[in-house]
Amino acid sequence: MTDLKFEDCLARLEQIVGRLETGNLPLEESLKIFEEGIGLARTCARYLEDAEKRIEVLARDESGALGARPFAWEPEREQ
Amino acid sequence: MSTARAVLTVSELTRRLQEVLEDRFPAVWVEGEISNYRLYGSGHAYFTLKDPDSQIRVVLFRNRGHRIKFEPADGLHVMAFGSIEVYPQRGEYQLVIELLEPKGLGALQLAFEQLKARLQAEGLFDQARKRELPRFPRKIGIVTSTSGAALRDILRVIGRRFGELHIVIAPCRVQGEGAAEEIAQGLRDLNALGGVDIIIVGRGGGSLEDLWAFNEEIVARAIAASKVPIVSAVGHEVDFTIADFVADLRAPTPSAAAELVVREKQAVIDSLGQLRARLERFAARPLRDLERRVDELTARLRREMRGELGRAGHRVALAIRALRASDPVARVAGDRHRLANLQSRLVTALTRRRDRARYGLRTAVGRLDSLSPLAVLGRGYSLTRTPTGEIVQSPAQVSVGEAIRVLLHRGSLDARVTDTREQDDRPQV
Q1: Residue B130 burial by Cβ neighbours in a 10 Å radius (0-12, 13-18, 19+)
Q2: Residue A19 included in any domain
Q3: A47–B138: do the CB atoms touch at under 8 Å?
Q4: How far is CA A11 from the centre of its chain?
Q5: Is residue B155 less than 8 Å (CB to CB) from chain A?
């Protein structure tokens, strides 16, 4: 599940909620997908919590290999 | 005696002509129509410039050709700037040009229309080619100048909407010689980097010349070749470039591009919260339904029992009253046998009455079972009661060591509470 993108995670969660709302699922099945849904909701929440601000700029070293270094930018000083 | 003739060799004459012509016309503008245009593999182009009465040969060398923004073609009316050069080997003179401009329509405008028509015919602008933009990109690439207003605008909008994202800037010049090549390289670099969800390519407003790099074919090709979806954001709302036509989405300005790409973090959090609430509400419903049915069943069971027993008790009471009314003391004194007989009938009647009450109760319960609300226990639910029959819904209702009875689908369990917890093991959100 960890390699799922936030995007895919949220789409799957929407699908599960839709099934629970519309489908007349057997209890066992609904419990199963409920648990999956809770897991997905947690993963999504974690994505949002773990997201960190990172601004980088691409640069090539002497050998021409591509790398990224931090880009300093302070929005608050702008007007 | 013959006069000495001044005889020149062909080379000498040619050299003198060369001196005259090349000294006299080192820099000249000439106007005419292009004909016999030929572009050779070497990159040099040759053509004739003519008007109704005359014509002159023209050469456009490769190292000058890249400065010509449009594609020269037969029939185009142009103004050429260059110098006259004599070509001694063939005894010809020609105009070696530095600049070429279409007359009437601006050179850039013409070039724009030409490239647009060509790429459109190739299908590069087709709607079917457009890639879907991710709704929640987490790694955003930006191809622009690090010193431009466009980058500041984009970073400011992203910072405001959802600051905690990973942004990678591919720095490039956005105008002037070589800018188009750098923009194309930036697009390729961000593709090569991997993990980039979406790329914004653009710059702030400027003149048609300033925005020109975004009308270059090399940029259009790089956008078309990108595996990562691309949003173009060039200049102001009114500016349309070739890059805009090829991009998966055209944003009117760099700020607008950032708004189109990044959602408000609060909106994302809210929609996630709503999904979670819906999930829990609908997952809890089957449990709530079962609880309600068990409650109803219990209430009906109690009513039935009260009714049957009540009726039986009433009949017993009537029998006793009748017995008393018959003044048993006097009669019994005379006839012990009759009393014994009466007693035995009373016992029999009471016993039969009790049996009937029991039977009625059993039937009632059986009927209830056939309605099968308790059958839901078959799905794995159980019902827990305290010794007083109270249904256990919270750990607070029982204490450690207390006996409880657990009603299952088939039979029941008598158990003892070993521990109580306010929180259960169900997943918590």
Answers
A1: middle
A2: yes
A3: yes
A4: 11
A5: yes
Give the pLDDT of chain B (429 residues) as one tens digit per residue.
567 788 999 999 999 999 999 999 999 999 999 999 998 888 899 999 999 899 999 999 888 766 777 888 888 888 899 999 999 999 999 999 998 888 876 677 888 888 999 999 999 999 999 998 988 888 999 999 999 899 999 999 998 888 788 999 999 999 988 999 999 999 999 999 988 999 999 999 988 888 999 999 999 999 999 999 999 999 988 888 999 999 999 999 999 999 999 888 888 888 888 888 888 777 666 666 766 777 777 777 777 777 767 777 777 777 767 766 665 555 555 556 665 666 677 677 667 767 776 776 666 665 555 445 455 677 677 888 888 888 888 888 888 888 898 888 788 888 999 888 877 666 554
A76 is a domain residue: no
Residues 6+ apart with CB under 8 A from B138: A5, A6, A47, A51, B165, B166, B197
The backbone torsions φ and ψ at residue B351, rounded to the nearest 5 degrees and listed phi first, read -60, -45
Q: Does B186 touch chain A (CB under 8 A)?
A: yes
Mutate which of A6, A46, A58, A78 to test chain B, going by most B C-beta atoms within 10 A?
A58
CATH architecture type of domain B10-104 = Beta Barrel (2.40)
Q: Judge if pTM exceeds 0.80.
A: no
Q: How far is A1 from chain B (nearest CA, A)?
A: 17
Which option is the CATH number for B112-263: 3.40.50.10540, 3.40.50.261, 1.10.40.50, 3.30.70.20?
Answer: 3.40.50.261
Q: Say if the ipTM goes beyond 0.95.
A: no
Q: What average pLDDT score do residues A17-32 get?
A: 76
Q: Residue holding tokens 């959602």?
A: B263
Say if A27 is an interface residue toward chain B (CB within 8 Å): yes
CB–CB of A44/A9 below 8 Å? yes
- Answer whether A45 touches B (CB < 8 Å): yes
Same fold, B10-104 and B112-263: no
Buried b (16+ CB within 10 A) or exposed e, B344-354: eeeeeeeeebe
How many structural domains comprise chain A?
1
Phi-psi region of B159 (alpha: psi -120 to 50; beta: other; left: phi over 0): alpha
**In B145-223, which ranges are E strands?**
166-171, 198-203
Whether residue A77 lies inside any domain: the answer is no
Measured between beta carbons, the chain B residues lying within 8 angstroms of A41 are 272, 275-276, 279, 429
C-alpha dist (Å) from residue B328 to B240, B318, B321, B336: 118, 15, 11, 10
Does the beta carbon of B194 lie under 8 angstroms from any beta carbon of chain A?
Answer: no
Question: Sign of dihedral through CA atoms B76, B79, B81, B87?
Answer: positive
* Alpha carbons B384 and B406: distance in angstroms, whole number: 4
Chains A and B: how many Cβ contacts under 8 Å? 109
* Beta-carbon separation of A41 and B190 below 8 A: no
